[in-house]
From TrEMBL, chain A:
<feature type="transmembrane region" description="Helical">
    <location>
        <begin position="409"/>
        <end position="436"/>
    </location>
</feature>
<dbReference type="Pfam" id="PF07810">
    <property type="entry name" value="TMC"/>
</dbReference>
<keyword id="KW-0472">Membrane</keyword>
<feature type="transmembrane region" description="Helical">
    <location>
        <begin position="644"/>
        <end position="664"/>
    </location>
</feature>
<keyword id="KW-0812">Transmembrane</keyword>
<feature type="transmembrane region" description="Helical">
    <location>
        <begin position="615"/>
        <end position="637"/>
    </location>
</feature>
<keyword id="KW-1133">Transmembrane helix</keyword>
<feature type="transmembrane region" description="Helical">
    <location>
        <begin position="142"/>
        <end position="169"/>
    </location>
</feature>
<feature type="transmembrane region" description="Helical">
    <location>
        <begin position="474"/>
        <end position="491"/>
    </location>
</feature>
Automatic annotation (TrEMBL), chain B:
<dbReference type="InterPro" id="IPR051433">
    <property type="entry name" value="CIBP"/>
</dbReference>
<dbReference type="InterPro" id="IPR002048">
    <property type="entry name" value="EF_hand_dom"/>
</dbReference>
<feature type="domain" description="EF-hand">
    <location>
        <begin position="146"/>
        <end position="181"/>
    </location>
</feature>
<dbReference type="GO" id="GO:0000287">
    <property type="term" value="F:magnesium ion binding"/>
</dbReference>
<dbReference type="GO" id="GO:0005509">
    <property type="term" value="F:calcium ion binding"/>
</dbReference>
<dbReference type="InterPro" id="IPR018247">
    <property type="entry name" value="EF_Hand_1_Ca_BS"/>
</dbReference>
<dbReference type="InterPro" id="IPR011992">
    <property type="entry name" value="EF-hand-dom_pair"/>
</dbReference>
<keyword id="KW-0677">Repeat</keyword>
<keyword id="KW-0106">Calcium</keyword>
């Protein structure tokens, strides 16, 4: 061993076949029972005594895997395989059988994995995207795929429990509760009389009115039917409510599960803002890069990135040495800019609120005239238009402001992202608030308009359908804007840049795929769908189709118009960040849902809840129809005797996990120290050898 | 064309499947591509050694800045001239395949980046590595000051035992913190 060390140290070349430079190898080698000398004929440097300690209890579990994961030339691996083959008769019959079964299982696993890989949606496309444009862009498409699957599964859920039973039982079922109270509030006529021309058909499609209003699309169509046989009873209102609640819970579970995997990865790789040169250099090259142009582009990217990082570092050093006066000036400037951004946001919100109010007024005023349909359409889409314009302009202005603020580049990205998130969500919130304001007369039940029916009956005969329509319009408009931008902005930009070489076009350059704003767009659409799902059960299906179209559009624009990104987006921590933002959107939507279910009076003229004061009241009334045993069981679950032990148990589990987490962190630190000491020991020993041999 | 597949019998195929991370289809495809590089008169494909400049004609390796290092690392020829026989070629594809483990990939990545084959990444190795990554020729490379700053930073971050070089364990420590490595260290025929 010592002579070998000496030999290696004096010679220039290092021999990788010996187990020395590869500590991880010991573990796998130790598991194998190799003591035959036949294998080392061709490679005298290889020392099998370094390896196994003859661990027979370790067994043959990992054996078929181990040979592959040895970083040795094929010839040695073949020799090892042969020598292992000789040892087989030594094993007992039981162990032989076990080995056979394990091998078969492994073969089956590899076959299953290959098959699954083939089935995965868009697998090959996303690989190609990742190869050409890097991890950041790939994470966007992975996120999009996750949303498509989520929406589709939710649609299946809703279809199975609400739409299909509604369809089937519509004629058969009986009415659940009978009408009580004010007759005037129950009048609801969604279908205007008159011929439906194709032109009107198209406009109705765009605005969710006319033939679409009284259909499976919207809440208003569903009746409170109930079917009861000897063994089977199905109440549509109950199913509707439970499906909506379960849909939200299901989405939450999916998001959190996905966050778990992303968080694990993010924690293991450390913080995202710390620039890691070693990571860039060691990890920088994508070996799958094919072709002359792609290679040159990648090299240019890496060069640019390294230069930018180095420059940022020297800037930071300079910034740290600013005088106190300059620091004060910088901070007050930043405060001023923050106030300016706040002012811009408030202006945008006021614009959205005003547009929504105006649009609702116009929609309520509308008498069924055939003329001016285009103008009506414009008024209907006014909130969507204002929101889209605000979402485009305000971040643009914020970018210009950010140039004045002189934050470091990584902080600038985070600040811009946060501002955009706040703008989108609060904008949506303002729209919803304005709608609520109109529907419930600002919550004031004594107002003249709301007194009679506990909601604004005059303007909103069926307010849930109207809310559903607004969400539907938002979704549709978002898709149309994306396609319009694609066709009208991105393709011409590429043609201009490619064919007309002037200074301006060089400066502007080809499009870059900005991951963060695209992801925020996705989160915004998903939030809109969540908010609207209670009122428009088909919205998840529409959203699935929309996201599929969006996938292909973005893919086309990516490959035709975009250049590879200059600054790589940290894909591992950013995946976690996207999910956090999605969770925020979910919370906003759940607030809306809870409020609609628990507080606002449902429409009396339409929908499955027309005869209750609250959507939630269905549950207590049905509760007492359950059998006594079930009632008792459910009461028990809600009582303190059950919940307090449950909470203390979960608290215990959480403490355990936190303790585990801190222990792992400490052992990582200890292992680092061990690494340091090991190499110091080695250097010390080598020096000793040199001294002794002198 | 029919004779090329028959050179790989079932026994050899299953042996290769066990010793590499490649599936049966991938091994057969590798054999097909390997045979295309053979000179016309050569019939025994498995044991023939293809010289480096022929291997570098493969489109997957042609424009890779590390192509010569890859050939030299996987070559088992006595003259260390980078020529590969079929076994070496399969080793190469196995290390670069989808299902190879992080340990295997990081081990071979380290050997590829070790330009002077001394078992550690010294300043010279790192400088050559950065030049390969950025296509360092003249005006498209870093200035000497920037290069020094960069290599100082790299060594400060990854050289744990402060001996001025990055050894295999330190390299693997850096790589293990990046989950993108497995997907970027990939060549698929």
């Amino acid at each position: 061993m010592i002579s070998e060390l000496q030999r290696q140290h004096s010679r220039g070349e290092y021999n990788y076949v010996a187990g020395d430079g590869y500590p991880g190898d010991h573990h796998s080698l130790r598991l194998r029972r190799l003591s035959s000398q036949m294998s080392i004929h061709d490679f005298p440097h290889y020392n099998p005594s370094l390896s196994d300690a003859g661990d027979s209890e370790a067994g043959d579990h990992g054996q078929p895997r181990d040979l592959r994961s040895l970083p040795l030339p094929m010839a040695i691996k073949k020799a090892k395989l042969k020598s292992r083959g000789i040892q087989v008769p030594v094993l007992s019959k039981v162990e032989l059988w076990k080995q056979e079964k394990l091998k078969k299982l492994r073969k089956f696993q590899t076959k299953a994995r290959e098959f699954l890989y083939f089935l995965v949606l868009w697998g090959k496309t996303i690989q190609k995207i990742g190869g050409n444009f890097g991890g950041g862009v790939k994470s966007y498409f992975l996120f999009l795929r996750f949303l498509v699957v989520l929406n589709f599964v939710s649609f299946l859920l809703i279809a199975g429990f609400v739409i299909i039973p509604s369809l089937v039982f519509r004629q058969v079922g009986t009415s659940f509760m009978n009408s009580t109270g004010n007759e005037r509030c129950t009048i609801y006529e969604p279908n205007p009389p008159g011929l439906v021309v194709f032109y009107n058909f198209f406009l109705d499609l765009l605005s969710g009115t006319g033939f679409m209003e009284y259909s499976f699309m919207f809440y208003g169509y569903y009746k409170n039917t109930m079917v009861e046989n000897n063994s089977f009873s199905y109440k549509i209102p109950l199913a509707y409510l439970f499906t909506a609640v379960f849909y939200f819970a299901f989405c939450l579970i999916c998001i959190i599960a996905r966050m778990g995997t992303a968080a694990r990865v993010a924690v293991a790789t450390g913080g995202s803002t710390v620039v890691n040169y070693s990571m860039t250099v060691f990890n920088g090259w994508n070996f799958g890069c094919l072709g002359e142009t792609a290679t040159k582009l990648k090299q240019k990217n890496l060069l640019y990135r390294l230069q930018v990082d180095l420059e940022e570092e020297s800037l930071k050093k300079r910034a740290a040495s600013l005088t106190l006066l300059k620091k004060f000036g910088l901070h007050s400037l930043r405060l001023l800019m923050a106030l300016l951004v706040l002012g811009l946001n408030i202006a945008a919100f006021y614009g959205i609120s005003y547009a929504t109010t105006y649009s609702q007024e116009q929609q309520n005023k509308r008498v069924n005239k055939e003329s001016d349909r285009i103008q009506d359409l414009f008024f209907e889409y006014l909130p969507s238009i204002v929101i889209s314009v605000a979402n485009f302009l305000v971040p643009l202005l914020c970018d210009q402001i950010a140039k004045v603020e002189h934050y470091s580049p990584s902080i600038t990205v985070i600040v811009a992202l946060l501002r955009a998130v706040v703008l989108r969500f609060v904008g949506l919130g303002v729209l919803l608030f304005t709608l609520w304001d109109q529907i419930t007369c600002t919550g004031n039940m004594d107002d003249a308009k709301c007194k009679e029916c506990s909601y604004n009956y005059a303007s909103y005969a069926c307010w849930e359908t109207r809310v559903g329509q607004e969400m539907y319009k938002l979704t549709l408009f978002d898709l149309l804007i994306n396609i319009a931008v694609l066709v009208l902005v991105e393709f011409p930009r590429r043609m201009v840049v490619d064919n007309w070489s002037s200074k301006v076009s060089q400066l502007v350059g080809r499009q870059e795929f900005v991951v963060s704003s695209n992801v925020l767009g996705l989160v915004y659409s998903q939030t809109v769908v969540w908010t609207g799902a209670l009122f428009c059960p088909l919205l998840p299906l529409i959203n699935t189709v929309k996201f599929v179209i969006l996938f292909y559009c973005k893919k086309i624009t990516l490959f035709s118009n975009c250049r590879p990104p200059q600054k790589t987006f940290r894909s591992t921590t950013s995946a976690f960040f996207f999910l956090v933002v999605l969770l925020l959107g979910w919370m906003l939507a759940s607030v809306v849902m809870i409020y609609s279910i628990a507080v606002i009076h449902p429409s009396r003229g339409c929908g499955p809840f027309r005869f209750s004061d609250n959507m939630w009241l269905i549950i207590p009334t049905s509760f007492y129809n359950l059998s006594a045993a079930t009632q008792e069981f459910l009461f028990f679950i809600g009582s303190q005797a059950f919940t307090i032990p449950l909470f203390s148990l979960s608290g215990l589990v959480m403490c355990y996990v936190i303790a585990l987490f801190s222990i792992y962190g400490k052992s990582v630190g200890l292992l680092r120290l061990q690494l340091k000491r090991e190499s110091r020991d080695k250097q010390f020993l080598v020096k000793q050898i040199e001294e002794l041999s002198r | 064309m029919g004779t090329t597949a028959s050179q790989l019998d079932k026994g050899m195929l299953s042996e290769y499947q066990e010793l590499t991370f490649l599936t049966k289809q991938e091994i057969l495809l590798a054999y097909k591509r390997f045979s295309e590089l053979l000179p016309k008169e050569e019939t025994n494909g498995i044991s023939y050694r293809i010289p480096m400049n022929a291997i570098l004609e493969l489109p997957e390796l042609k424009t890779n800045p590390f192509n010569e290092r890859i050939c030299k690392v996987f070559s088992t020829s006595d003259s260390h001239d980078g020529s590969l026989n079929f076994d070496d070629f399969l080793d190469l594809l196995s290390a670069f395949s989808d299902s190879a483990t992080l340990e295997i990939k990081s081990h071979y990545a380290f050997r590829i980046f070790d330009f002077d084959d001394d078992g550690t990444l010294g300043r010279q190795d790192l400088e050559k590595l950065v030049n390969c990554l950025t296509g360092g020729t003249g005006d498209t490379s870093l200035t000497p000051d920037e290069m020094k700053q960069l290599i100082d930073n790299i060594l400060e971050e990854s050289d744990i035992d402060k001996d001025g070089t990055v050894n295999l364990s330190e390299f693997q420590h850096v790589i293990s913190r990046s989950p993108d490595f497995v997907s970027s260290f990939k060549i698929v025929l």
